């Protein structure tokens, strides 16, 4: 019978720490190889439409950022010039400005790999209608027009990003800027021969991006007077632009497209997949556009081949859009040539991806629409066209277009199961190694050169998988996912691992508190709506609780501390109430809000040198900025979360009486004897993980990052600043986690060895959780859904390493002591004589 011999070194092996960091970095990066790969396929030749005359010489694309279909449709008096031409379009998810415009002009879904590379500008090169145009001019927000101005013949004009103020009373001035600058440009071109010649080329695109509606929607909500009045400003501006263009060109060969990149929720946010966010108006008129007829619904990516076909240019090579022939009015032969070009462009993507995956051992062609089916479809379309049966040929393509798109997605995700299995093996091998580290003979399993060299019978296995990676021509990072588990399993095999009453009193309260916290993960994510009453009530309730605690005889020593916290929290509730009456909080209110953050970190250091005192003051102080950052039920969640953390600390010191527990000092407990990992540390690790995950996901805070509502930071900032906003949101996430780490550091009495052991056990638990989250990652759906799946995986991967850092930081925070000025009793408890024995 095997017997496990546990033993622990005084210091954690630095080799294991480095290995752990490296493995976790590889596992974090793996999601961008397995799930979030770029849809851009390189090396595809463009497919020209034909040499026939195109139905239009130029296309004007006007994008009203954040324009909802229902608001536009229900207010025809605000848009009398373009309402009568209304169609409906389903924007692409995620409903954000960058992916929306990439879908409109490149015909591809959001490049999910870009989530790790920034928001402001897409760093991934992709083909677009602007690349294929003869010339392009664009006006609008720098965040959008600069996405596409990386080619010489694309000319962009934008205003300063500082003008994008959510709190502005008249955001329509952003749209007026676009219309005014277009007018100046046209009038200047009338007297400039060179500019006039460029403008009159065939295949020119004009893009006008209008941000005013989106800004008014964020600041004033989409049913506000400012939002609806902005629609009238846009309608009038479109009329001006068309009059100027018709007068300048005078050939009636301009096509016009008016649409939006996404809609908006009733509370002024976007990013998810509700109808209010997905549906936007689509209006097309002019040369090459069918006049009259029934209203149609389009997918956003279908606008790309429409723009290309109107001016007779090749569809962007990676476009997934299908030409909406029902919206076009052109010569039947030209329409067929445009459809054939669209078919060949989709077929080229299927062929390129199939060739890339065909060298796999397990390669299987897409079963529903293989090479023979595509060749047969192409032959039949050409045959029908030769018989001048263009409409039948076009219908044949429309019926099979979804099969082509399904084939592209099939090959795009072809390696997912294989790479997912490899990453799962890496998880399991690493978890096994950590467990072996916890239960080992130190002299026989040190991380020396002999241990790091696999046994001879592992080398053939390693060589086989190396040859396998070369044969399949997979990338270096993908080869690491395959080879690293083999090596780690060899290390696991290499070592010699084996030889032949207080609690019951609080139980009901604990259970009740858990039941009260249980519904929070099922509530709508924070950001869906604001509920100022809860933000006011939560600090008020905590203030009343502190006052009541100050009257308890057993807590008489802490009475001054509780009274001071009660006053501070009551003032916080009053401050939030007053600020709520301002549509835009005054500058002094924002200064006070910002001041609460450093004060919450500094003031607790003046409290008495007792564990209970320090935990109470830190919790109360942190609750102030957290309440100011709250817009809904998250402050109520934290109000219920704090008692359950406090009860757990008390349970861990159940062997002490109440008096002795309240007198616990901050000094590190003497514990010279090495201890093995027992049920106590396993319990602490499980509870710690539960606390951290509850605090991060119980309030939907990660959802509020991925579907951001500007109201969240209204008390701190109003001007759009991604870096500052991200810092504040991360701070909001970390406050409950820091409360947890402060409690855990107090439980282990600031012992470094106990902290390391706790983190090792947490590491095992979270790595198992990461393995589950890895297989639940999503690369389609709303930005909210994608972001939540990534958040769960990243948090579970980082929690053990982050907790190690936070526990050490918390230990220093708990033990650091500052002296207050003379006669200033800041969070000072009463001196109570020790009880006589």
UniProtKB/TrEMBL annotation:
GO MF annotation terms: mannose-ethanolamine phosphotransferase activity
CC terms in the record's Gene Ontology section: endoplasmic reticulum membrane
Domain GPI ethanolamine phosphate transferase 1 C-terminal: 407-492, 504-782
EC number(s) on file: 2.-.-.-
Pathway stated in the Swiss-Prot or TrEMBL entry: Glycolipid biosynthesis; glycosylphosphatidylinositol-anchor biosynthesis
Keywords from the UniProt entry: Endoplasmic reticulum, Glycoprotein, GPI-anchor biosynthesis, Membrane, Transferase, Transmembrane, Transmembrane helix
GO process annotations (BP): GPI anchor biosynthetic process
Primary localisation category: endoplasmic reticulum
Transmembrane annotation, as ranges: 12-32, 417-441, 457-474, 526-549, 561-582, 588-606, 611-629, 635-653, 682-703, 723-746, 758-778, 790-809
UniProt topology in membrane: Multi-pass membrane protein
Compartment annotation: Endoplasmic reticulum membrane
Described function: Ethanolamine phosphate transferase involved in glycosylphosphatidylinositol-anchor biosynthesis. Transfers ethanolamine phosphate to the first alpha-1,4-linked mannose of the glycosylphosphatidylinositol precursor of GPI-anchor.
Family: Belongs to the PIGG/PIGN/PIGO family. PIGN subfamily.
Listed name of the protein: GPI ethanolamine phosphate transferase 1
Organism, as annotated: Caenorhabditis auriculariae
Top-level taxonomy: Eukaryota, Metazoa, Ecdysozoa, Nematoda, Chromadorea
């Amino acid at each position: 019978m095997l017997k496990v011999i546990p033993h622990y070194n005084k210091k954690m092996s630095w080799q294991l720490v480095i290995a752990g960091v490296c493995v976790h970095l590889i596992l974090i990066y793996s999601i961008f190889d397995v799930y979030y790969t770029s849809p851009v396929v390189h090396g595809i030749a463009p497919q020209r439409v034909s040499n026939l005359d195109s139905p239009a010489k130029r296309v004007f694309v006007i994008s009203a950022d954040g324009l909802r279909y229902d608001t536009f449709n229900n207010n025809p008096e605000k848009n009398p010039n373009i309402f009568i031409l209304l169609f409906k379009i389903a924007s692409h998810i995620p409903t954000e400005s960058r992916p929306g415009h990439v879908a409109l002009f490149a015909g591809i879904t959001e490049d999910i790999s870009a989530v790790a590379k920034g928001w402001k500008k897409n760093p991934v090169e992709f083909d677009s209608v602007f690349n294929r145009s003869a010339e392009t001019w664009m006006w609008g927000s720098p965040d959008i027009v600069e996405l596409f101005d990386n080619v010489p013949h694309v000319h962009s004009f934008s205003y300063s990003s500082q003008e994008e103020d959510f709190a502005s009373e008249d955001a329509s001035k952003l749209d007026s800027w676009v219309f005014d600058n277009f007018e100046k440009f046209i009038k200047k071109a009338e007297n400039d021969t060179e500019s006039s010649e460029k403008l009159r080329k065939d295949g020119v695109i004009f893009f006008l991006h209008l941000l005013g509606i989106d800004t008014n929607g964020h600041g004033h909500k989409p049913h506000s007077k400012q939002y609806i009045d902005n629609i009238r400003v846009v309608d009038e501006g479109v009329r001006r632009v068309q009059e100027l263009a018709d007068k300048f060109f005078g050939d009636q060969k301009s096509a016009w497209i008016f649409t939006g990149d996404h809609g908006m929720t009733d509370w002024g946010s976007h990013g998810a997949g509700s109808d209010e966010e997905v549906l936007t108006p689509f209006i097309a008129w002019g040369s090459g556009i069918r006049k009259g007829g029934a209203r149609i619904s389009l997918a956003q990516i279908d606008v790309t081949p429409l723009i290309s076909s109107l001016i007779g240019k090749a569809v962007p090579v990676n476009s997934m859009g299908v030409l909406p022939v029902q919206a076009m009015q052109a010569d039947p032969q030209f329409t067929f040539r445009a459809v054939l070009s669209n078919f060949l462009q989709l077929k080229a993507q299927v062929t390129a991806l199939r060739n890339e995956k065909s060298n796999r051992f397990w390669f299987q062609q897409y079963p529903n629409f293989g090479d023979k089916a595509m060749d047969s479809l192409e032959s039949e379309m050409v045959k029908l066209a030769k018989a001048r049966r263009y409409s039948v040929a076009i219908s044949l393509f429309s019926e099979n277009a979804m099969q082509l798109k399904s084939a592209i997605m099939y090959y795009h995700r072809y390696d997912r199961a294989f790479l997912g299995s490899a990453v799962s093996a890496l998880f399991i091998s690493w978890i096994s190694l950590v467990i072996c580290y916890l239960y080992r003979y130190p002299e026989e399993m040190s991380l020396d050169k002999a241990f790091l060299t696999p046994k001879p019978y592992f080398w053939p296995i390693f060589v086989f998988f190396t040859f396998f990676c070369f044969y399949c021509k997979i990338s270096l990072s993908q080869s690491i996912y395959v080879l690293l588990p083999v090596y780690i399993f060899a290390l696991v095999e290499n070592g010699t691992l084996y030889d032949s009453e207080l609690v019951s009193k609080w139980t009901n309260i604990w259970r009740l508190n858990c039941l009260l916290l249980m519904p929070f993960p099922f509530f709508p994510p924070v950001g869906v709506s604001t509920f100022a009453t809860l933000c006011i009530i939560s600090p008020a309730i905590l203030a009343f609780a502190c006052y009541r605690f100050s009257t308890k005889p057993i807590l008489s020593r802490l009475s001054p501390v509780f009274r001071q916290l009660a006053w501070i929290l009551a003032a916080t509730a009053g401050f939030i109430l007053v600020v709520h009456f301002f549509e835009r909080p005054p500058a002094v209110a924002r200064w006070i809000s910002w001041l609460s953050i450093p004060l919450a970190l500094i003031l607790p250091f003046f409290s008495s040198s007792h564990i209970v005192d320090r935990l109470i003051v830190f919790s109360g102080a942190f609750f102030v900025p957290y309440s100011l950052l709250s817009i809904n039920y998250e402050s109520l969640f934290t109000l219920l979360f704090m008692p359950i953390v406090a009860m757990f600390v008390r349970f861990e010191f159940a062997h002490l009486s109440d008096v002795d527990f309240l007198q616990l000092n901050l000094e590190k407990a003497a514990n010279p004897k090495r201890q093995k990992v027992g049920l106590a540390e396993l319990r602490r690790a499980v509870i710690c993980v539960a606390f951290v995950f509850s605090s991060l996901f119980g309030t939907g805070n990660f959802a509020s990052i991925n579907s951001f509502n500007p109201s969240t930071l209204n008390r701190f900032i109003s001007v759009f600043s991604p870096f500052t906003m991200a810092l504040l949101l991360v701070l909001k996430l970390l406050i409950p986690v820091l409360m947890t780490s402060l409690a855990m550091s107090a439980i282990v009495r600031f012992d470094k060895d106990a902290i390391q052991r706790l983190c090792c056990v947490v590491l095992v638990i979270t790595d198992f959780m990461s393995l589950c989250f890895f297989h639940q990652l999503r690369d389609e759906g709303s930005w909210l859904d994608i972001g939540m799946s990534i958040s769960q995986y990243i948090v579970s991967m980082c929690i053990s390493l982050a907790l190690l850092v936070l526990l050490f930081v918390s230990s220093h925070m708990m033990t650091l002591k500052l002296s207050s000025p003379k006669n200033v009793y800041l969070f000072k408890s009463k001196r109570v004589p020790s009880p006589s024995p």
